[in-house]
Structure formats: C-alpha cells, structure tokens
Design brief:
There is one protein chain. The protein is of the alpha/beta class. It is built from 14 helices and 18 strands. The strands form 5 sheets. The chain has a 5-stranded parallel sheet, with helices on both faces.
Length: 431
C-alpha cells in the first residue's frame, strides 16, 4: 500500500500533515511523492479565506482524476475546510472516500484502518511520530492550537477552537529530539505565539520558551511567528535583543492602523499603540526586520481610513508586507456588518498599497548592498548557491543568489557580500 500527501495552507497545517505521514510510515505504508503511484491520496486542506477554499476544491478534483487514470483507490480529505463544511463536501464530492475533521484527528489511524481494511497500531496523531518534510536543517515547532482573539473577520476560532498551549516540557522534549537530529533552524509557530502559556501558566511564556530553546547546542537560528502587537512585552523584546540565536525578525500582523477599523475588527491595539511598539523595537534593536499583514476594504473602511493606512505604510517602511482584500467568511461577525466595500474599491486599494510597498521593498533591499551576511544554503545549481539570511523566512520571504565558485553542501552556512538586488531577492558573492 502506497500513500501520497498534498498539504495546503499554512505551516501549522504542514505540521499536522507531517504527523499523518509519520503515523502512516509507522504502520508500514509506503510514502510516495508521485500521485500516479499512490494507492491512497490524502489532501490536508486550508479553509481560511475564499481563495484558499477554491484552491482546496480544485486540488481535490485534480487528485480525484488519479482514481480514473492512476493507481488511486482511496481519496481522503482532511483539515480546515473539512472541519467547517464536512456535510456539504460529502454531498458535493462523491469522489472522496473519507473526510476527516480536525476534531477526529484523535481517531485518525482508526478511520484509516476502517477505510483500507488494514490493521494499524497507532490511532491518534502524535508530535513524536512526525516525519519532517522540510529537509534536514529547518523544522517548525508548533506550540499551541487554535485562537481566542476573536477578530471579527477571522474563522480560525470556529475551525480550530480556542487557544490551547502545549506544555513546555512536551515542546522542549520535541526540541531536544530535533537538536539531537542536527536541525539548525527552528521556527516557533502558533496562530498567536505571544499568547503562549497564558491558558496554562497564567502569563505569556514565549520569552521563557525562547530562552530554553537557545540552550540547545545545534540550534543556530530560532524564529517565532506570529506576534500580536498587544502581547509583545518588554521581556520578549529584551529576550530577542540579548540572545544571538534568536533572529531579530518580528512578524506582527497589525491588519490596520485606523482606530475605527481596528475597533470594528475587534483588534486589541490602537493605532498609537502599534506605532509606539514599532518605534520601541527599532530603538532597542536597530537592525530588526519587520513583517506585517494588512486587510484593505474591511466593512466601513472610509477613504480617510485607507489614506491613513497608506501614509502609515509609506512612513513606517516595513521590510516585508502582505496585503489581503477583505473576504467575507461564513459565520464571522464581520460577515453581517453593514457598509460592505465593493470589489472594485478593494482591488484598487490593494493595488495602491502594493505599489507603495514595492518601492519600499526595493529601497530596503538596496540598504543591504555592500554588507556581509551569513547564508543558510538550501539549493545548489551549476550557476548559483541559493539560500536565505536571518532576515528571511522559508516560503514567505526572498532568497540570496550567490555565484557558485566553490563546493558547498545543502544545510551549511556560508558568508557572502551583497552586490545587487533583483525584485525581492538579493545577489551576492562568497566572501
């Protein structure tokens, strides 16, 4: 029996997929990368916004073709889309043999066993069974499930439930295992990492966790994603500042800067608090890298609100910035808000912000020319050594292209001088 996996959406979803792969391998099911060879195809879906839902449906229909033209006997669909729309999907997608909600992950092996009629020894998905798909250098470390922030536009609490932290000792046991396997870059993830530990320990324990991770000898780079502005404490800033292993990288999703819009979003920070936080971090850590995400066209967003956001982007000069057009999500409070913004206006505002940010990104990248950086090698071709600096998160940020003049191994670190920029990437030469 052979199984192929397709993982859609965020890195948190990828960790779930890795646990599914681990359980399959533990039970002697062969993992294949070519869907044509797979007897079972499993798609782990995202259901966060409309475009992600459409991608999931398209992928399901694409994989269903292998039941006609390949070896596929069983098609399984899991994840966020199934958690929200299982009954509707069962009616509209008869090609799928098994839908598994997130709530049913405790019985994942049991359900798989019933479908393929093969005795399996492990039923629940477990972190210790993970089979890492991110190579031998970089690994994600998920520290919590769900979210309790209840932003009015977001469906995550309805899909993943309230925020539930993992016990620190369990996280550190997993980290110890990754350290012993030689992993060099650890990316700490949760829907909101800054809320870590509040439900268990009565206060945020992210700074304490990061300090503990710094004690592992093989970890060279440690990152954390995503830090909500109201929960970025003085202790957390000091921890990042004072520990060399922690990348000076702050991914802070602010969504907007207008107090009126922030209030309608049920965000916990005001515009001034956000501005003060960024100024404070830059004062404490002058070389800090900032990434944020914004929503344009939220219900009730006026031209004045948008102009305020645009001015903020132009003046703050984020290193990296993502923009989303507001998307109505079923069951969220924002879906029922009046003053919904027409699509053409949302698109116009998106284009305006992105055009402004493109100039800023080019300007910020040019600041690196002539400077020396350590690069983690991720790919080697005959022409280039390709990698990332501390300033870049995999799959999200840019790359460094270095002219290949010497033999280097994937997973190694080399130093380079930046000589030029190209769109969102850097070009360099080996020191």
């Amino acid at each position: 029996m052979k199984i192929g996996f397709v993982s859609l959406g965020c890195s948190k979803n990828l960790v779930d997929t890795e646990m599914m792969i681990g359980l399959s391998k533990k039970n002697g099911i062969e993992i294949v990368n070519n869907e044509k060879e797979a007897d079972i195809i499993l798609i782990n879906t995202c259901g966060f916004i409309e475009s992600a839902k459409q991608e999931a449906i398209d992928t399901i229909l694409e994989m269903a073709e292998y039941k006609k033209n390949g070896n596929c006997k069983f098609l399984i669909v899991t994840g966020c889309l199934v958690q929200r729309y299982k009954l509707e999907l069962q009616k509209s997608l008869p090609e799928v043999d098994l839908f598994i909600t997130i709530d049913e992950y405790e019985k994942f092996g049991e359900k798989l066993q019933q479908l393929i009629n093969k005795k399996l020894s492990t039923y629940a998905l477990k972190y210790e069974d993970r089979y890492l798909t991110t190579g031998n250098t970089t690994a994600y470390l998920k520290i919590a499930e769900g979210c309790s922030n209840r932003c009015t536009y977001c469906a995550i609490p309805y899909i993943r439930g309230p925020y539930v932290s993992r016990k620190m000792e369990d996280i550190l046991d997993e980290a110890k295992n990754l350290n012993n396997k030689g992993y060099k870059e650890i990316i700490v993830i949760a829907q909101d990492t800054t809320k870590y530990g509040i439900d268990i320990y009565g206060k945020s324990m992210l700074a304490e966790l990061l300090k503990e991770l710094c004690k592992f000898n093989n970890f060279k780079w440690i990152r954390f994603l995503y830090a909500y502005p109201e929960s970025v404490t003085k202790e957390l800033i000091e921890t990042v500042k004072n520990n060399e292993k922690i990348c000076k990288y702050f991914d802070i999703p602010i969504q907007h800067i207008s107090d009126t819009v922030l209030k309608r979003m049920n965000r916990k920070s005001t515009g001034k608090q956000i501005e003060d936080l960024i100024k404070n971090i830059r004062q404490e850590i002058p070389d800090a890298i900032f990434r944020t995400s914004l929503i344009v066209g939220f219900p009730g967003e006026t031209e004045e609100d948008f102009e305020k956001l645009l001015k903020f982007v132009e003046e703050t000069k984020f290193n990296k910035l993502g923009v989303f057009e507001y998307s109505k999500e079923d069951g969220t409070p924002a879906e029922k808000l009046k003053e919904q913004i027409p699509k053409r206006i949302k698109s116009k505002r998106w284009n305006t912000i992105m055009a402004a940010q493109q100039k800023i990104s080019e300007e910020k990248l040019k600041e690196h020319i002539g400077k020396e950086y350590e690069v983690l090698v991720e790919e080697v071709t005959s022409k280039y050594i390709i990698g990332r600096t501390r300033m870049d998160v995999p799959e999200m940020d840019g790359l460094v292209y270095i002219k290949n003049t010497k033999n280097v191994e994937i997973g190694s670190f080399i130093n380079c001088i930046i000589t030029s920029v190209k769109e969102y990437d850097l070009i360099g030469r080996i020191v």
